[in-house]
Design goal:
Elements lengths: L5 E4 L7 E2 L1 H13 L11 E4 L6 E8 L3 H6 L5 H6 L2 E5 L5 H6 L17 H6 L9 H6 L13 H6 L14 E2 L12 E11 L2 E10 L5 E6 L6 E3 L2 H4 L3 H4 L6 H11 L5 E4 L2 H8 L1 E2 L3 E3 H4 L10 H9 L13 H18 L1 H6 L2 H14 L12 H7 L8 H7 L5 E4 L17 H11 L5 E7 L7 H18 L1 E5 L7 H9 L4 E7 L6 E6 L2 H11 L3 E2 L2 E2 L1 E3 L9 H10 L6 E5 L7 H7 L6 E5 L12 E6 L2 H11 L3 E2 L2 E2 L1 E4 L5 H10 L4 H9 L1 H28 L4 E7 L2 E3 L2 E3 L1 E8 L5 E2 L1
Parallel strand pairs: 2-5, 4-15, 4-28, 6-12, 7-11, 11-13, 14-15
Antiparallel strand pairs: 1-3, 5-31, 7-8, 7-10, 8-9, 16-18, 16-21, 17-18, 19-20, 22-24, 22-27, 23-24, 25-26, 28-31, 29-30, 31-32
Helix pairs in contact: 13-14, 19-28, 20-27
């Protein structure tokens, strides 16, 4: 059973602002693990990183945190799937600060970042003892049975195993005869397409020990094909239309063709056998045979060229040829057995790979996919940074990053050509290529007409104005000469008050209360409307404006937001209480994971409220029922579900304490133009959310997905970005 990767992050309140260096830490560790000195990021933790299926970064060029909250209701998928969010500090050179860069590349025996002892040993041809091949097999030649995978190795590498619950419906080849060093070798390779079932076989090739093709068969999948992966599989819809052969037919043919002592050879053969739904007891896996350190593997294309001197998987050809790949894997195994481990180690494959990759990087070839985004161009032209670029590290370890984006985005030369490329075309390309890449960066864009700085300022002012209205309530009427201190005390029990003023324009006095947090305003509306305060039965309501007509819908959606799942807001606390005091008070609550006590970001003083985060949603429901009416240090507590527990809390506080004068001037000056754009932007945001939903659904389980609204630096001011992240699991929602 494959382990599920998990992501944890303490992103509440002040801890929600993440720098580009911290984001770089996360992506580097996710992509490289403990290789290249990559360590767990300081602000979050990935569990079982070695089981990550891949990393996908989606960049929404030209957007900031403002866009997410101005068009919050349009982002249905993002707010329901990604539990972890953070404010991202804006950068003048976003891509460079995201990817990082290393020193100038130059020919050398070790690649930048390859600093482990084992890598240094590989470059010394006079001493082969450090080579992982020698450490695993020794120097002496041995027969083929010494290179077949043991049962434990098969389990570790996810081979179908007889008797395993996951393989109960799989077909056995029934090749159960004892193997000897003279047992026949057969090369096997399959091409797969993506269907609703997962990876299904669409072509099977089998070659014998002389390289003769015994089987080269197209196969009709059981389920409708979602992605033919033509660029890699070579399979098209037209090719499969007349095909009648089914998986069961191929299984029967393979059983008849293979002798009882057959040894199957393939490159990552576990994937082929899983797709064939067949169990075979004796295999040689060339991706493991040519051993490397730290779980890395050489690609078949590289091994064929370096060991056999053969070019396979040529880019000019549409898709891979499974017969060619099966034959290459077979010949690699035969070479290894005939020449022995010492001869293979003397080839110095690590150094050959490093030299090849460095040559590609220096020519700007390695990271540029055909028709893709020229992201590397910006990296090459940017000033060198002190930290190493993990994209370079990925290349020299044999992993080829996928970079796709919109053409002609801005003056930073982000992309090189083909100005007609649309977000829809990028999505189609991503759906084909992302499942085949371990690290992908996909960039969508709003288009140049929607990223003008004055439009950002106008959107910011609209969000600020709406949040101010959502934080404000009007209460009354009160009797003449009412006690303002009593009113302030009663409304203060709902949470920290930003300002309280008396409204005198009405026949009877009212009060206007502006809170610092959304939860306090909502508590006041829910608990004090119709209550008796200062001797009067009062009505509590928010301002009625055109922008506030959907306020109730917005509040409901914020409450249902996955980021706020299992989080409670608690008000009515004494400001003298410390976090330690509260931990003690709430210690008996089941599954309490974290407590956050907000502070005034200027004075550092605690507010009279806190947030409680629970490991399970039901535990939060039970705690909510228990907390309401509690008395702590003589104060009765009030509680409700959180609305803005994470990064939004900090942003609201900052907006509350900014005068917004420049934004207002720009906003009113550009009102007409902004109104024209907003309807189009609303549609674009909805479409972007749909694109990300479609891409996310195509990802394998255990894929880390990070969605970035990069933020804006302009003459009209700086707008912070927003990051959303999670690891996809079986349920489709990101794993926390």
């Amino acid at each position: 059973q494959e382990k599920s990767c998990r992501l944890s992050a303490a992103l509440l309140g002040e801890d929600c602002e993440i720098s580009h260096d911290q984001l770089y830490e996360l992506l580097k560790y996710a992509a490289l693990g403990k290789c290249h000195n990559a360590a767990q990021p300081s602000w979050c933790r990935i569990y079982h990183q070695s089981h990550l299926a891949g990393v996908v970064v989606v960049v929404l060029h030209g957007t900031s945190q403002v866009h997410f909250y101005r068009f919050y209701l349009q982002f249905k998928h993002l707010r329901k799937v990604f539990r972890h969010r953070f404010t991202l500090t804006p950068s003048t050179n976003f891509l460079t600060s995201l990817y990082g860069e290393g020193p100038e590349l130059r020919p050398q025996n070790t690649a930048p970042g390859l600093t482990s002892t084992s890598s240094e040993c590989v470059t010394k041809s006079s001493d082969l003892q450090c080579d992982p091949i020698i450490r695993r097999y020794g120097e002496q030649k041995r027969g083929l049975t010494n290179y077949t995978l043991t049962l434990e190795e098969q389990k570790k590498n996810y081979y179908p195993i007889k008797g395993s619950p996951e393989c109960k419906d799989y077909i056995s080849t029934e090749c159960d005869q004892q193997r000897t060093d003279s047992s026949p070798l057969f090369g096997l390779d399959c091409e797969m397409c993506l269907t609703a079932k997962g990876n299904e076989v669409t072509r099977v090739s089998l070659v014998d020990a002389q390289g003769q093709c015994l089987l080269n068969e197209l196969v009709k999948p059981e389920r409708p094909v979602m992605n033919y992966r033509t660029r890699f599989s070579g399979i098209t819809k037209k090719m499969l239309l007349p095909v009648k052969t089914r998986l069961s037919d191929v299984q029967t043919r393979l059983k008849k063709m293979l002798p009882h002592d057959a040894v199957l050879v393939g490159h990552s053969l576990n994937s082929d056998l899983q797709a064939l739904e067949m169990i075979h007891p004796s295999v040689i896996d060339t991706s493991l045979l040519f051993a490397r350190d730290e779980g890395r593997r050489f690609k078949l294309k590289f091994l064929a060229k370096a060991v056999l001197g053969k070019e396979i998987q040529c880019e000019q050809r549409l898709g891979h040829d499974p017969t060619e790949d099966a034959r290459a894997a077979l010949e690699l195994a035969q070479f290894f057995i005939e020449q022995g481990p010492a001869k293979v180690a003397e080839l110095n494959l690590e150094m050959l790979l490093t030299a090849e990759k460095l040559a590609e990087v220096s020519q700007n070839k390695a990271v540029l996919q055909p028709q893709g985004c020229g992201v590397q161009k910006e990296l090459n032209e940017s000033p060198r940074l002190s930290k190493p670029c993990f994209l370079d590290c990925l290349q020299v370890t044999g992993q080829k990053p996928l970079l796709l984006g919109r053409q002609g985005l801005d003056s930073s030369s982000l992309c090189q050509s083909n100005l007609s490329t649309s977000n829809k075309q990028i999505l189609q390309r991503a759906l084909e290529d992302v499942p085949l890449s371990t690290f992908s960066i996909i960039q969508f864009s709003l288009g140049p007409e929607y990223i003008a700085s004055h439009l950002h300022a106008g959107l910011y002012e609209k969000v600020r104005s709406k949040l101010t209205d959502m934080l404000t309530i009007y209460a009354g009427p009160f009797e003449e000469g009412f006690c303002l201190k009593t009113v302030k005390k009663e409304f203060g029990r709902c949470g920290p008050i930003q300002s309280l003023t008396v409204v005198t324009e009405t026949f009877q006095p009212y009060v206007r209360v502006q809170y610092e947090v959304l939860e306090a305003t909502q508590l006041a509306v829910e608990s004090l409307n119709g209550a008796e305060v200062a001797g009067s039965c009062i009505k509590v309501q928010r301002p009625v404006t055109a922008a506030m007509l959907d306020c109730d819908v917005l509040i409901k959606e914020l409450e249902l937001d996955v980021e706020n799942e299992g989080v409670l807001y608690v008000a009515g606390l004494k400001k003298s209480l410390t976090e330690t005091d509260l931990q003690e008070e709430f210690s008996h609550l089941k599954d309490l994971e974290m407590l956050f006590l907000p502070k005034d970001l200027q004075s550092g003083k605690h507010r009279n409220c806190c947030f409680l985060k629970f490991q399970k949603s039901q535990s939060a429901v039970d705690a909510l029922e228990a907390i309401n009416g509690w008395t702590v240090k003589g104060r009765e507590l009030r509680s409700r579900n959180a609305l803005a527990s994470g990064h939004l809390w900090r942003w609201i506080w900052q907006m509350n304490h900014s005068n917004g004068k420049q934004g207002k001037h720009i906003f009113y000056e550009q009102m007409e133009q902004l109104s024209d754009c907003e309807q189009d932007l609303r549609k674009k945001m909805k479409k972007l959310d749909h694109h990300i939903k479609k891409l996310y659904r195509s990802l394998q389980n255990n894929t880390l997905c990070v969605v970035l609204f990069p933020g804006v630096n302009s003459t009209h001011g700086s707008q912070p970005g927003l990051g959303l992240m999670g690891i996809k699991n079986d349920a489709g929602r990101s794993a926390c």
